[in-house]
Amino acid sequence: MVEEMYRDFRKHKDEDSSSSMQDKGEDESHSHDHSKGKRKEESFLTPPDSPKKKASLIKLDVKFDLPIYDGELNAEKMDNWIRQIDVYCRVQNIDSGKSKIQLASLHLGGTSLVWWEGRTQADMKRHGKTISFWSEFVSAIKKQFYTLAYMQQAMMSWKTLRQLKGQSV
Length: 169
Known about the structure:
about 170 residues
């Protein structure tokens, strides 16, 4: 199931990027006039207010490894993982909730992966579909792991709570 989700994610990612990249071998100083289907050359030295220059796009080719969330009961770690997935998707122009969920599921491990696989299978049996909105995915994973993490941290704080000298009860 994970392999199928990865193939779907790559397919959507390739479709998104194929519309923005015509040919990797093209010089970055060229742009396309899609309204006429003709190629035109633009210099990077053209002033931004020039009528000749439409908009310049910056393409960054950066190697970035997203962390694996393994279901650790640590609310801060989970929040950071969600934030990193959000930032990566924003930078890569991944807007589809389904694509974001597929990307996130590829970066689950341990108990969180087992939970997600079980949740996906149960949703398919019950509803014939899985979660397709990013906000639903975030809510579901937080409901499963965040509450436990928060409670565990609260219990640890309670257990280690000590009255300091001069503090009233």
